[in-house]
Amino acid sequence: MKRHTRHVTADLAVIGTGIAGCAASIFARDLGLTVAQIGHSGAMAYTTGYIDLLGVLDGRVLDDPWSGLDALRSTDACHPLARMTNHDIRTAFDRFVRLLGEMGLGYTAPGDRNVSALLPYGTTKPTLSLPDTMLPGSDALHRRAPALIIDFEGLQGFSATEFCTNMASVWPGLRPARLVFPGLEARPVFPEVMARTLETPVAQEQLADLIQPLLNGAETIGLPAILGLQAPDRVRARLEQLTGATLFEIPTIPPGVPGIRLREAFERELPRRGVLLEPQNKVSEAILRSTGVDLTVQGALDDLRIEASAAVLASGRFLSGGLKSDRYRVKETVLNLPVRQPETRDGWFSAEYLDPAGYPVNKAGIEIDAAFRPLGPDGVPASDRLFAAGVVLAHQDWVRQRCGAGLAIATAYGAVQAAAGSINAR
Ligand SMILES: Cc1cc2nc3c(=O)[nH]c(=O)nc-3n(C[C@H](O)[C@H](O)[C@H](O)COP(=O)(O)OP(=O)(O)OC[C@H]3O[C@@H](n4cnc5c(N)ncnc54)[C@H](O)[C@@H]3O)c2cc1C
Q1: Given ligand 1 and candidates 15, 47, 413, which is best to mutate, with the most ligand atoms within 8 Å of its CB?
Q2: What is the distance in A from the centroid of ligand 1 to the CA of 45?
Q3: Is 33 in the pocket of ligand 1 (CB under 6 A)?
Q4: pLDDT tens-digit readout, 48-99
Q5: What letter does residue 387 receive in the DSSP assignment?
Q6: Terminal C-alpha separation, the chain
Q7: Residue 200 has what DSSP assignment?
Q8: Assigned superfamily of 4-105+260-424
Q9: Which CATH architecture has domain 135-250?
Q10: What's the whole-model pTM score?
């Protein structure tokens, strides 16, 4: 059968459907740009759902990420977050979190201080904004309020007993309990299936009936993140009404429901906002022109050619396929851009396995100029029409610095502002 090629023109092409790509599309639509966005399922489904800005700097846990950013600017000026003002980063964060609310996912407004957020194994991490379904857990930890922690038979990667045991020294009033999830007989049980089941009123009532006898005076209940996919705040509110207790979610190991919620919400919302979204495909060819960027996407049945006045590269790192490596070098996969990295493979790692400074290869990535334009082999921008955002950028170690989503959102804002400037200067 002859393959058909669709031709599309757009002001901006966004390469990647992770947090950086989705944020870039929204920021671009806010500016009135037409947008075509292409990507595949990347790291988004793996996230806890927390939106970190900067949680750790030089091994120090930060209470105030904003003064942490000020310090970062003086010690590590090449860090992508250090290239932006706190004002612009706040604008980007506020807009993104507002958008999540508009999509039906309530998040706490980013404030001046990090919050201690719960992790599946009974540890905590600093974050700036968290889902409303998780906030009561952080509040309860802060108050050391007694709480019942529930897990489910057959659910792997989340144990209430383990959570309570590991938390015991900082949060002594926890009590574990295990339930059989209503209506799911096969083992193991998966958080996504439980979440979809809990969207039905019947399952909500059955679960509440199972929780009731366990309460024994408990006013706060922690559950793994399973409270629905499309409207978690409504599911939580209904279960609170049925049990008479305050409920909170604890992220499970990846891939988890909070990330799937984000991915599905963006897949629903971006087309509604006028973005031409190709969420199951990757760019197979990209050509830089003086007037823009041409992209080819080979779909299962037909092909897509996008002619855009500018592009934002938000293709992520190894997990999402934006970077790849052989035994010698790290490479950028879409445009073969130079990757900043240690001279040789010997320099990738550290002799100390758990080196608190991290491994140098973690900071490998695309080098950009002040206008978020990736640099070519000669050290000047590869194109005036190409911009980059997210964790594909060099000079950051988002895992260790606890800045994953924040870096993606902030740099997407910076890249889109710069791209809009170049498009409007045509
Ligand atoms: C296990 C885990 C836990 C996390 N927890 C947190 C957390 O608690 N807090 C936090 O703030 N952040 C967290 N993150 C980080 C966060 O989810 C994102 O990974 C981060 O924000 C980076 O986003 P990104 O958009 O730059 O890259 P990615 O999310 O990696 O997205 C890259 C996108 O590019 C696409 N792509 C790649 N190649 C091509 C191509 N050729 N054509 C088109 N598209 C392409 C991919 O398909 C993907 O859609 C976590 C991540 C992981 C993996």
Answers
A1: 47
A2: 8
A3: no
A4: 999 999 999 999 999 999 999 999 999 999 999 999 999 999 999 999 999 9
A5: E
A6: 40
A7: S
A8: FAD/NAD(P)-binding domain (3.50.50.60)
A9: 3-Layer(aba) Sandwich (3.40)
A10: 0.97
